[in-house]
Amino acid sequence: MSTGLISSSPNSPPTARLTSIVSHLSNVRPKVVICRHLGPAMPLLEDRKDIEVVLWPEDRSCERSWLLEQIKGAAGVLVFLSDRVNEELLEAAGPNLRVVSTMSVGYEHIDLPLMAQRKIRVGYTPDVLTEAVADICVMLALMAGRNDGAAYSLVKNGDWAKPKYAWSPFTFCGPQLSVTPSSPTRTVGFLGFGRIAQATLARLIPFGITHCLYTGSPSSRPDTARDAALQATHKLKALERVEADRLARESDILFVLTPGGAETYHLVDAAFLRKMKPMSVLVNTSRGSVVDSDALATALREKWIWGAGLDVVEGEPLISEDHPLVKEPQCVIVPHIGSATFQTRLDMATRAIKNLYGGLFGEEMPAELGKQ
Amino acid sequence: MSTGLISSSPNSPPTARLTSIVSHLSNVRPKVVICRHLGPAMPLLEDRKDIEVVLWPEDRSCERSWLLEQIKGAAGVLVFLSDRVNEELLEAAGPNLRVVSTMSVGYEHIDLPLMAQRKIRVGYTPDVLTEAVADICVMLALMAGRNDGAAYSLVKNGDWAKPKYAWSPFTFCGPQLSVTPSSPTRTVGFLGFGRIAQATLARLIPFGITHCLYTGSPSSRPDTARDAALQATHKLKALERVEADRLARESDILFVLTPGGAETYHLVDAAFLRKMKPMSVLVNTSRGSVVDSDALATALREKWIWGAGLDVVEGEPLISEDHPLVKEPQCVIVPHIGSATFQTRLDMATRAIKNLYGGLFGEEMPAELGKQ
């Protein structure tokens, strides 16, 4: 289906390129709306003389009314998770809009069928955050095992200096992530075994991890060749795809790395947690909805497991100081900062800008939805 | 020199074994004093029928008066850093004492020349804590880079739910430990390059570390063969022994892993910190005295460096909530828990008990001071 307008046929590169050339010749630069300042990535936009940039000027999510006004006649828009891209926005934009670029891995805020119908290209930013999130997986596993919430608070509150804190041979002890001569095996488990899980596994190898178990998505088929290669690369005693039951029972450190949504809702519930080892540690850096918060709080309080490290919590960011997990000393929570490094956010912003240009000038987009 | 008493000549195994046999035959079991409950290691003592165990019954350091009373006639004593082993203690013990075993790496509480003079053997517990401390080195490097003090406190205080915390593309960002395609090199630096440093380096390799610099002790000679082998094993672009000046200037992540004492006092001072990169992170897990706390607080406040992660602070444990480093948001401090894992402390306790038995029965001690 075609709207019949040259500028809304971006999937046809020669036509789009023609549009661009026409724009140049007529000295009409395509307008792009940027819904948030992109920090150190801004020069990539500001240095371009062939586009007109309209930027939301404040350090908060852009107001809807501002966006609906500014998008009139725009050829592209760079959005975030909080900006809904729906019929209302497209109507306000008019027929010139040919690309929507979101600086996010998720795209639940974009009406994809509508985009396809209007032939508006959509870019997003997958993959670039793998390494940053794998880093925080290791950090949270160590913090949860080593009682870091309590240890950090003790110093912060000035209690290190007080007699009530006295050293003893087993004060502040927790399970050790790395192996020791007297404790020479460790099993790491992954609920979901995508890129972040594999990057996390690689980081744990020098700690002496000996066994790796994982669950795959029900719709995916086992990949025994890949698994055999990974096991050999990492010199593991075992690397196996298993059912959730065995994952829970055997993991010393268990990482939740599934996508969110209805299919994975509360996969980690009371029944799952009851099967886990008393000295095990749970880490969730994917989506809060996968873990039942009440069940986890009970598991920690009643010592079914040793500790938990969370970058995500169901219902975030509305997590108050009396949330059962926030109150739990054996739970370490950070506010969804998995991808929050300058390098990764800059890579995400850069990719979003490159997607925007690709769509704007009818060229390839580094990560285009619907084009795998 | 010999005291002329059989039981005080433990360096002569046949004689000592004779003593042991005589003890058995006469049904007089050697008495050992244990200055603190050893938790899960206690069965190693309690199951032995050939010794008489006297244990300090409380969950705090043993009282001096108790120790001086109980040690009368003892053949061995298992002590901790807080128990001074000096002439007073030896006089109270009498001539039967043939072994002092400390559950610690340090031995500054033991009068070693006096022990040599009296031919009393001394055991300690080095090496076994290498892996536990290397784990916490990685944890603190990640926490310091990723603003973990502030991130953890935000959730703990319930501020995640409040409007004053709003997501933005660079909120809570910090330098990324792992490499990214747009930031493909990382230099890790070690002030001191012993076992813990090398175990830490190994853990960082899968994060994509590309360069390693270190300073050696002035009394040690460069070991180019070892360095070349390590560089090859870890596939590093460089591994070099350098002067402190270059270490400070080039490290992205810098670990302080020297011994304490006068020779390393304030090696990390204002001049050193001023040379460091603005996005670098400092981690100290060795001795607080190596780092000038006031200079570090200034460096963090004035952003000479990005962040710091400390397991040790000069003057610990008397570190109150208004200590300049405790108040500094970019500083993460934990209360000297580097070796605090059940596995490692159990290994330390086990080694201390084995040292005790070795000395008691004139056999080999797993780690004996003065016997390298």
UniProtKB/TrEMBL annotation, chains A, B:
<comment type="similarity">
    <text>Belongs to the D-isomer specific 2-hydroxyacid dehydrogenase family.</text>
</comment>
<dbReference type="InterPro" id="IPR036291">
    <property type="entry name" value="NAD(P)-bd_dom_sf"/>
</dbReference>
<dbReference type="InterPro" id="IPR006139">
    <property type="entry name" value="D-isomer_2_OHA_DH_cat_dom"/>
</dbReference>
<dbReference type="Pfam" id="PF02826">
    <property type="entry name" value="2-Hacid_dh_C"/>
</dbReference>
<dbReference type="GO" id="GO:0030267">
    <property type="term" value="F:glyoxylate reductase (NADPH) activity"/>
</dbReference>
<dbReference type="GO" id="GO:0005829">
    <property type="term" value="C:cytosol"/>
</dbReference>
<feature type="domain" description="D-isomer specific 2-hydroxyacid dehydrogenase NAD-binding">
    <location>
        <begin position="139"/>
        <end position="338"/>
    </location>
</feature>
<feature type="domain" description="D-isomer specific 2-hydroxyacid dehydrogenase catalytic">
    <location>
        <begin position="40"/>
        <end position="366"/>
    </location>
</feature>
<dbReference type="GO" id="GO:0016618">
    <property type="term" value="F:hydroxypyruvate reductase [NAD(P)H] activity"/>
</dbReference>
<dbReference type="GO" id="GO:0051287">
    <property type="term" value="F:NAD binding"/>
</dbReference>
<protein>
    <recommendedName>
        <fullName>Glyoxylate reductase</fullName>
    </recommendedName>
</protein>
<dbReference type="InterPro" id="IPR050223">
    <property type="entry name" value="D-isomer_2-hydroxyacid_DH"/>
</dbReference>
<dbReference type="InterPro" id="IPR006140">
    <property type="entry name" value="D-isomer_DH_NAD-bd"/>
</dbReference>
<dbReference type="Pfam" id="PF00389">
    <property type="entry name" value="2-Hacid_dh"/>
</dbReference>
<keyword id="KW-0560">Oxidoreductase</keyword>
